[in-house]
Design a protein that fits this description.
This protein is mainly α. The protein has helices at residues 36-39, 57-87, 95-115, 123-126; strands spanning 19-25, 28-33.
Length: 138
């Protein structure tokens, strides 16, 4: 093929998707890309801000009760998590045993790797003797 036969490549526009959000984990990265469908909230998802001063008594009482209940639940949840961590309830009961097992396994593996360069003879290999011929010649 001659150079005159190769078609010229015109410049092309490449559109690169930029991630909307990048989440880093200990075992990898997740990139969330924006979609036109999910970026725009639907009418059901939109919350309208209401001024509590303009509500009738019944709706105002429901609004204030709901706000107090969710605030109280959040506070109780936070205190429960804090107390659990203070008393050590969130840690595994026998974690120290598990850690000791893993430490011993790593130590054993390391020792085997260090010794693998040295070869030793078994007792059977050192004491190789010929067996006498037990067949009689008559």
């Amino acid at each position: 093929m001659e150079m005159s036969q190769i078609p010229e490549l015109s410049s092309t526009n490449v559109k690169v998707k930029v991630p909307k959000r990048v989440v880093y984990f200990s075992d990898g990265v997740v990139e969330e890309f924006s979609d036109d469908e999910t970026d725009q909230p639907s009418a059901e998802q939109e919350q309208q801000v209401v001024d509590p001063k303009t509500l009738p008594w019944r709706d105002w009482f429901v609004f204030k009760s709901w706000a107090a209940a969710t605030g109280t639940l959040s506070a109780i949840d936070y205190m429960g998590e804090w107390l659990a961590s203070v008393f050590g309830i969130t840690t595994p009961k026998y974690q120290f045993e598990i850690d000791e097992y893993h430490r011993r396994q790593a130590e054993k593996k390391e020792e085997e790797e260090n010794v693998s360069g040295w070869t030793t003879q078994n007792e059977s290999e050192r004491n190789v003797t010929q067996q006498p011929n037990t067949t009689s010649q008559n």
